[in-house]
From TrEMBL, chains A, B:
The entry's keywords: DNA-binding, Transcription, Transcription regulation
Gene3D superfamilies named among the record's database cross-references: 3.30.70.920, Winged helix-like DNA-binding domain superfamily/Winged helix DNA-binding domain
Tagged with keyword Membrane: no
Species lineage: Bacteria, Bacillati, Actinomycetota, Actinomycetes, Kitasatosporales
This protein's name: Lrp/AsnC family transcriptional regulator
Signal peptide: none
Organism per entry: Streptomyces flavochromogenes
DNA sequence: TCTGAAAAGCGCTCACA
DNA sequence: TGTGAGCGCTTTTCAGA
């Protein structure tokens, strides 16, 4: 994982549909060499998959909220319970008073309320504190340049 | 945006490198028709871009934290100040006592501390409350099937 | 809006350095 | 780990329905 690899990752994050010739030119390599490096980045798992970025508002996810989930028992193996709710995009075990932090997207605040009800129904959950987002400044992928430290 | 479009989006999220022939077969259309639908999804902005999913841990982002940022003044036009910090992956204006919620990834907790210092230096910021993630259950893209309501 | 086919471009693999 | 070239497949386009 050198500077060239990080630059390749940055360019692929911006546009994964570009040709290997263009990608190679951006880092001063031939198309074949760029292809080989990207193949290895996939092999190592640094690149997980090629995907498309979907506008949340276009598919019924205009309302964004973060929910602190309090519990009375250990939530360490409740991943599936949260994953079963399609509106829950992220679920993390956190340090602090609450035990799980989840990111939720719904079309309306009524649907958000329904998701909170379904979270509350999960075994061990004793309460929820929802924080509704009024405006999103930006959402962006992790910068490979952080690795340059 | 009908059922076919939502299915196309779901398949593209899973693998944007597959052929239009395979994509069309998944929804019962010819490659040409699938191509035309995807082209329109891009045109409308439902698909923002084709990208790669990068493993955060592979590029110096192993530590994840959410930070509530309190302020003494209106933070509505401080988007650039947060965007200038590469470790800040998301920044949202929120309802509630704090005024901005940010998602941060760093390699170490020492670097997280440094990011908090730089956030504190932003004009109007009066305090930060960081919540460190101990374990991530999952992080996934918005489900196009939400739109089926 | 779809199908089917033709043309142009690219991915992938190879021999070689 | 790199280059450059070839074959084969895919993207992209278009006429027709």
């Amino acid at each position: 994982m050198d500077h060239i690899d990080r630059t390749l990752l940055t360019h692929l994050q911006q546009d994964a549909a570009q040709s290997y010739a263009a990608l190679g030119q951006a880092v001063g390599l031939s198309a074949g060499a760029a292809h080989e490096r990207v193949r290895k980045l996939r092999e190592r798992g640094a690149i997980r998959r090629t995907t498309v970025e979907v506008d949340p508002a276009a598919v019924g996810g205009a309302v964004l909220a973060y929910v602190m989930v309090d519990s009375v028992s250990w939530m360490g193996d409740s991943a599936e319970a949260f994953a079963a709710l399609p509106e829950v995009l992220e679920a993390h075990v956190i340090a602090g008073s609450a035990s799980v932090l989840v990111k939720v997207r719904t079309a309306t605040t009524e649907q958000l309320q329904d998701v909170l009800r379904r979270i509350y129904a999960i075994d061990g959950v004793s309460g929820t504190q929802a924080t509704v987002v009024l405006e999103t400044f930006f959402e962006r992928p992790v910068s490979p340049e952080l690795g340059a430290g």
